[in-house]
């Protein structure tokens, strides 16, 4: 995240002597991206972060692809994903390609006896239902309904949920999640025309140094495998850190919609970008105010992009019979558009309460076995009058 942040105690100069009260040196770690060329943070641990006690047997967590190639408008009933006690086991990949994996999860229990690190992807957790705290060495991030939590790869974390009713929509990105470049000035600051700014971005706080020796299980995901590691020191033993690389949060409710006299195209909803896909937010807003405007979207052909919509709340004006947690995948190659009757119905309407997350991947998505289990098979024919 291109905002400098610092928590806890750090030395005046980097790479200099920095001792604990007992005279021992703290262990400095550079956490850097794109080699040493992009965002980084300097972390000061009570103990070296390298003390591995044992390694368990790795196992595959690769999604099982059911439809590698397809050309079918697809709808999934996301809330049919069954709640599962364990956080990692609750995560079900439904759509995947080489740039991203999209998952649904309904975890019931907090993570108490292990930590998790995704070493292959940045994660964006969209909180549809539930609340709690993301705990990392960088500090804590409280979350609730409508939050996007961006967790850069390599961050060891635990989640504490407030209760058992949680629904998450998760994107794993094999490239870094960034704010849209066109909204940043030459110094990285979000410009005046950006739909959100640094004031809306929540950074970690309440750093709590846990200086403990023992057995700490960290499940590390890399290349579709999960590697069970046992470390000899607590992963949250940061006494301090500074830099630009850390988890952060943005509420969809803080995304300010861009509106106009005529229908605004989807890029006005863009919230994040990554290599080969974007994430957009559709939020409650005033409709177009030209006297003859048609608020419903026109039919469109995604010539070089699939389109995934995750329906969160409100009435989605261009669709009929949409329910919370529903996902539509409109693949590149065939047009899609408003359902019959919705264009006429939208004329004269002044505002919408719709809330949805959209992902446009520039390469085709594959559909997993988990997705087939929650598919509405007749959706492709839903445009018939
Ligand atoms: Fe669309």
TrEMBL record:
Presence of the UniProt keyword Metal-binding in the record: yes
Family matches, as InterPro entries: HgmA_N, Homogentis_dOase, RmlC-like_jellyroll, RmlC_Cupin_sf
Cofactor needs: Fe cation
Domain Homogentisate 1,2-dioxygenase N-terminal span(s) in chain numbering: 97-249
One Pfam family named in its UniProt record: HgmA_N
Family of the protein in this entry: Belongs to the homogentisate dioxygenase family.
PANTHER family: HOMOGENTISATE 1,2-DIOXYGENASE
Record's protein name: Homogentisate 1,2-dioxygenase
Phylogenetic placement of the source organism: Bacteria, Pseudomonadati, Bacteroidota, Flavobacteriia, Flavobacteriales
């Amino acid at each position: 995240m291109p905002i400098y942040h610092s928590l806890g105690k750090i030395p005046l100069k980097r790479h200099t002597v920095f001792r604990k009260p007992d005279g021992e040196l703290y262990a400095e770690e550079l956490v850097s991206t794109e080699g040493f060329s992009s965002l980084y943070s300097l972390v000061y641990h009570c103990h070296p972060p390298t003390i591995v006690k044992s390694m368990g047997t790795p196992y595959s967590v690769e999604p099982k692809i059911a439809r590698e190639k397809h050309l079918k408008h697809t709808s999934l009933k996301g809330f049919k994903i069954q709640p599962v006690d364990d956080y990692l086991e609750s995560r079900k990949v439904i759509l995947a390609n080489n740039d991203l994996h999209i998952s649904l999860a309904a975890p019931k229990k907090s993570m108490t006896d292990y930590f998790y690190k995704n070493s292959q992807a940045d994660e964006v957790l969209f909180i549809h239902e539930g609340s709690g705290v993301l705990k990392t060495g960088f500090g804590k991030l409280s979350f609730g309904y409508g939050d996007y939590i961006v967790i850069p790869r390599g961050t060891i974390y635990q989640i504490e949920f407030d209760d058992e009713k949680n629904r998450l929509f998760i994107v794993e990105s094999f490239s870094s999640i960034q704010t849209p470049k066109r909204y940043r000035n030459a110094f990285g600051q979000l410009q005046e025309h950006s739909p959100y700014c640094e004031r809306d971005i929540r950074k970690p706080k309440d750093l709590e140094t846990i200086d403990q020796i023992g057995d700490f299980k960290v499940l590390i995901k890399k290349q579709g495998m999960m590697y069970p590691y046992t470390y000899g020191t607590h992963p949250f033993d940061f006494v301090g850190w500074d830099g630009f690389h850390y988890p952060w949060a943005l509420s969809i409710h803080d995304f300010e919609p861009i509106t106009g006299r005529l229908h605004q195209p989807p890029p006005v909803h863009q919230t994040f970008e990554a290599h080969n896909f974007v994430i957009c937010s559709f939020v409650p807003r005033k409709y177009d105010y030209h006297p003859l405007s048609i608020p419903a979207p026109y039919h469109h052909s995604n010539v070089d992009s699939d389109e995934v919509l995750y329906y969160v709340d409100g009435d989605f004006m261009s669709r009929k019979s949409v329910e919370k947690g529903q996902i539509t995948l409109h693949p590149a190659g065939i047009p899609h558009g408003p359902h019959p009757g919705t264009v006429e119905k939208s004329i004269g309407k002044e505002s919408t309460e719709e809330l949805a997350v959209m992902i446009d991947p520039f390469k085709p998505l594959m559909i997993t076995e988990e997705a087939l289990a929650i598919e509405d098979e007749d959706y492709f024919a839903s445009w018939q009058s």
